[in-house]
């Protein structure tokens, strides 16, 4: 017990306690600032990544310099690098933005790796004035998926069941078309023969008797004359287009695995491979081909179209050319153009009337214009001249007749498409759109092709075009999708339409493809029947700044040139020190390929008539008629 008056243990001062707490807090804060947050490193990486996006959309890493060895390497998509970035590109699994295209004379960034998926393609098909903008931040894939679901609120709509009478008529049509179809043959011998046929790509086609050849030749003469008549389509909306196509299909049968949904997906037709090959009731020769291409009638495309049609007429005179029975231009334009009288034309109503004069992306109208032709052909089957349809673009040069794959009425024989190595269906946005359209589709089965060149049956185009059309429109109304997919965006829309409907179209790249070769990217013609000059070709010599020769389609845009085409300057004599714009060596083999393409183009140009006087007289007559009508209206008032 403590004695009275004694002092106990001294009490700890509250002031000392306060000082201790303050010192501890300051020390803790100082250590945090000096040593850094556990997330500081990640944050710095993310900021540097975002800040590294240049105005042209490529990354500018300071420590890496990429040297490209070949153009093929530049175009080959690379796998995403390990590790993550908090930027948009990192979340989408890409390694960067959109690079420049060395095939147009542009050099890769002095510092940095270019993007993986769409390198080289996005700029190759546009003028150098096209602006590239880096994608905005945000989870774009999820946003696009949500927007697509909202836009397709009616995607659960069931496919209309055909009436009993229509079903009988359909069965009768198929029976009439295939009444004399030969029994499907099996065995490796026939398979090897067909593969060899595709490889030769000179005259090609299934073996035919003399009588059958005579019939085909007669059909060519008849259909060519018939094709000279211009056809006009009535305007159709996207909804009407898709609905009319869906109404022609039979309700899809449920798929056993995975469990079938209660409703169908719009634009997907499980029975598409059982549709009639063509609405034409009379069976046509199964190895004949009807060529089609789209255009907006601008001087730029008319110059290319006249050359393409000129070379087409040249190869029709070669052995095997009798199978090319007709050619039709699908013109998406509000008024006729200057070459209507020269090229057989189907006039479709454009989605972008301003493209009659100028617009950024006239290709956006292509799918809708082709859907208008399909609708018109179902109403008037005489528009279809052959069971095989070949869809092209204007910038093609025919070299020899395209071999047919075989009898179009034999469903076991696949059509053909071309594999572009700058189309990468594995990019996230395409994977998401495919998932929306075809949840059970294997992404590996999506072709890296596009709507041209494609050789397929009418039924194939009828099945693939609704998705091609709708997704093309969807992409055009979503800026992020346009930025990601660039100037080849409608090609991806076609690929999804083909994959979702599981169409029997074989995708083959160069040099095995019987369709096209693309110099200078492709150094030889290979098995191809046509050249595609989407790439510019510039000859240079080391140490010399100015090119010694060039050909680029983008330099041929003058109005007067569509009426009287100028001859294209030929390349100079080859020497072993010539290089391309990207410093790749011009081999003798590549030089001979370029010379061959330009020679065929100039041969066609020499045979084309000068339309200047004819067009001027047409304009004068139209002006006089308008003046007369105006004078009559004035008197009437």
UniProtKB/TrEMBL annotation:
<feature type="region of interest" description="Disordered">
    <location>
        <begin position="248"/>
        <end position="268"/>
    </location>
</feature>
<feature type="region of interest" description="Disordered">
    <location>
        <begin position="148"/>
        <end position="235"/>
    </location>
</feature>
<dbReference type="InterPro" id="IPR044845">
    <property type="entry name" value="HPAT/SRGT1-like"/>
</dbReference>
<feature type="compositionally biased region" description="Low complexity">
    <location>
        <begin position="199"/>
        <end position="235"/>
    </location>
</feature>
<keyword id="KW-1133">Transmembrane helix</keyword>
<dbReference type="InterPro" id="IPR056508">
    <property type="entry name" value="HPAT-like"/>
</dbReference>
<keyword id="KW-0808">Transferase</keyword>
<keyword id="KW-0328">Glycosyltransferase</keyword>
<feature type="transmembrane region" description="Helical">
    <location>
        <begin position="15"/>
        <end position="35"/>
    </location>
</feature>
<feature type="compositionally biased region" description="Pro residues">
    <location>
        <begin position="253"/>
        <end position="262"/>
    </location>
</feature>
<dbReference type="Pfam" id="PF23452">
    <property type="entry name" value="HPAT"/>
</dbReference>
<feature type="compositionally biased region" description="Basic and acidic residues">
    <location>
        <begin position="181"/>
        <end position="198"/>
    </location>
</feature>
<keyword id="KW-0812">Transmembrane</keyword>
<keyword id="KW-0472">Membrane</keyword>
<protein>
    <recommendedName>
        <fullName>Hydroxyproline O-arabinosyltransferase-like domain-containing protein</fullName>
    </recommendedName>
</protein>
<feature type="domain" description="Hydroxyproline O-arabinosyltransferase-like">
    <location>
        <begin position="290"/>
        <end position="570"/>
    </location>
</feature>
């Amino acid at each position: 017990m403590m004695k009275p008056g004694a002092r106990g243990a001294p009490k700890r001062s509250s002031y000392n306690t306060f000082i201790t707490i303050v010192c501890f807090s300051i020390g803790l804060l100082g250590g945090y600032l000096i040593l850094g947050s556990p997330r500081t490193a990640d944050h710095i990486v993310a900021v540097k990544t975002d800040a590294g996006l240049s105005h042209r959309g490529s990354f500018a890493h300071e420590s890496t310099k990429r040297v490209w060895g070949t153009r093929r390497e530049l175009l080959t998509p690379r796998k995403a690098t390990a590790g993550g970035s908090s930027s948009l590109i990192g979340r989408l699994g890409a390694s960067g933005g959109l690079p420049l295209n060395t095939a147009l004379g542009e050099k890769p960034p002095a510092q940095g790796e270019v993007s993986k998926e769409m390198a080289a393609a996005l700029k190759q098909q546009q003028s150098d004035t096209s602006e590239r903008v880096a994608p905005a931040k945000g989870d774009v894939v999820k946003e696009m998926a949500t927007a697509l679901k909202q836009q397709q609120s009616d995607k659960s709509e069931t496919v209309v069941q055909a009436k009993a009478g229509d079903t009988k008529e359909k069965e009768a049509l198929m029976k009439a078309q295939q009444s004399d179809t030969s029994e499907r043959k099996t065995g490796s011998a026939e398979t090897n023969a067909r593969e060899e046929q595709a490889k030769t790509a000179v005259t090609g086609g299934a073996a035919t008797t003399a009588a059958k050849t005579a019939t085909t030749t007669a059909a060519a003469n008849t259909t060519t004359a018939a094709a000279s008549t211009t056809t006009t389509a009535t305007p159709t909306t996207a909804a009407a287009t898709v609905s009319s196509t869906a109404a022609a299909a039979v309700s899809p049968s449920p798929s056993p695995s995975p469990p079938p949904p209660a409703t169908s997906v719009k634009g997907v037709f499980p029975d598409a491979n059982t549709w009639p090959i063509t609405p034409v009731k009379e069976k046509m020769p199964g190895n004949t081909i009807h060529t089609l291409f789209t255009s907006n009638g601008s001087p730029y495309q008319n110059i290319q179209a006249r050359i393409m049609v000129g070379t087409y007429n040249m190869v029709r005179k070669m052995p095997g050319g009798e199978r090319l029975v007709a050619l039709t231009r699908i013109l998406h334009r509000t008024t006729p153009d200057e070459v209507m009288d020269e090229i057989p034309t189907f006039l479709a109503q454009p989605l972008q009337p301003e493209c009659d004069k100028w617009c950024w992306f006239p290709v956006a109208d292509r799918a809708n214009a082709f859907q208008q032709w399909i609708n018109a052909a179902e109403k008037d089957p005489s528009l279809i001249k052959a069971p095989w349809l070949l869809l092209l673009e204007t910038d093609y040069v025919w070299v020899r007749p395209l071999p047919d794959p075989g009898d179009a009425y034999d469903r076991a024989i696949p059509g053909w498409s071309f594999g572009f190595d700058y189309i990468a269906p594995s990019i996230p946005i395409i994977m998401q759109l495919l998932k929306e359209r075809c949840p059970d589709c294997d992404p590996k089965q999506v072709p890296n092709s596009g709507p041209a060149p494609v050789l397929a049956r009418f039924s194939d185009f009828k099945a693939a075009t609704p998705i091609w059309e709708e997704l093309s429109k969807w992409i055009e109304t979503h800026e992020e999708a346009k930025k990601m997919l660039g100037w080849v965006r409608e090609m991806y829309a076609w690929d999804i339409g083909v994959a979702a409907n599981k169409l029997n179209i074989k995708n083959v790249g160069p040099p095995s493809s019987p369709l096209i070769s693309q110099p200078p990217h492709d150094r030889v013609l290979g098995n191809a029947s046509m050249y595609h000059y989407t790439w510019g070709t510039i000859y240079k010599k080391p140490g010399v700044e100015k090119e010694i020769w060039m050909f680029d389609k983008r330099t041929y845009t003058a109005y007067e040139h569509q009426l009287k085409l100028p001859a294209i300057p030929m390349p100079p004599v080859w020497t072993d020190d010539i290089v391309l714009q990207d410093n790749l060596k011009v081999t003798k083999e590549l030089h001979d390929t370029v010379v061959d393409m330009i020679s065929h183009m100039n041969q066609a140009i020499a045979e084309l008539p000068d339309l200047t006087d004819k067009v001027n007289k047409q304009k004068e007559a139209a002006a006089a008629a308008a003046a007369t009508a105006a004078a009559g209206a004035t008197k009437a008032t």
